[in-house]
Write a structure and sequence with these properties.
- The chain is of the alpha+beta class.
- The chain has a single domain, classed as 2-Layer Sandwich (Alpha-Beta Plaits), CATH 3.30.70.
- Helix content is 40%, strand content 14%.
- It contains seven helices and five strands, in the order αβαββαβααβαα.
- A five-stranded antiparallel sheet has the order 4-1-3-2-5, with helices on both faces.
- Strand 2 and strand 3 form a beta hairpin.
- Keywords: Membrane, Transmembrane, Transmembrane helix.
Length: 213
């Protein structure tokens, strides 16, 4: 299925038809590229396992420090078939210190260029632009005409997803309601968060802060 042209159409439909409406609920976005290229790998499976271990460590730290942030990840394998880049869209945050990220990522491969915050260190404030920017990397991993990129082949061989998400964006968006019912306003106490943080977060980000998203 992955090697058919229909698969590329299906992925694009999912991104714009299913993911985008949820991404649009966020106000700030940050795009980062993580270089996972190194001579320490002896196979694609070895590369994936070592990089995934480091990525999981970083993801745990991000969730602890920015619990409301949601993440979309795309893996792009390099032409040598071993090294690869991880392209990540952070939804709900305008800035993450690159030095803080390198504390974890440089354990994989000490390299001053191992982490790149794209768009000249500026965040996106437009959800369509943010997701569109990620899409250009997604497209590189999909079939284009008769061309089958190496990323598509390796991801298929290892059983890796074209796109990966940290949790699903929001289970609230899939809740079904009866249109015949009248809505009732009810106050629910979900916790306490710093005022300065609450003033800069959207409703969805506040819910995610308390792990309701």
């Amino acid at each position: 299925m992955r090697f058919k042209a229909e698969y590329a159409k299906e992925i694009k439909h999912k991104i714009w038809g299913v993911i985008y409406p949820q991404v649009a609920m966020y106000r700030y976005f940050l795009f980062a590229t993580f270089d996972a290229s190194t001579t320490r790998y002896y196979s694609q499976d070895d590369a994936h396992r070592k990089v995934q271990r480091r990525w999981n460590s970083l993801l745990t730290r991000v969730r602890r420090k920015y619990p409301w942030v949601k993440i979309i990840k795309v893996v792009e394998w390099q032409e040598n078939g071993l090294g690869y880049h991880i392209h990540v869209l952070f939804c709900g945050v305008r800035f993450i210190p690159i030095e803080w990220i390198r504390e974890t990522w440089d354990k994989l491969e000490p390299n001053p260029h191992s982490v790149q915050l794209d768009n000249k260190f500026k965040t996106f404030d437009n959800p369509k632009r943010a997701l569109g920017y990620l899409m250009k990397y997604v497209t590189k991993t999909l079939r284009q005409g008769d061309e089958i990129p190496i990323s598509l082949v390796i991801n298929w061989a290892l059983g890796l997803r074209t796109l990966a998400f940290s949790h699903l964006f929001s289970r609230f968006s899939s809740n079904k309601t009866n249109s015949n019912q009248k809505s009732r306003g009810v106050w629910v106490f979900i916790g306490i968060m710093p005022l300065d943080l609450a003033l800069t977060c959207t409703n969805l980000e506040i819910l995610a802060y308390f792990k309701y998203g």
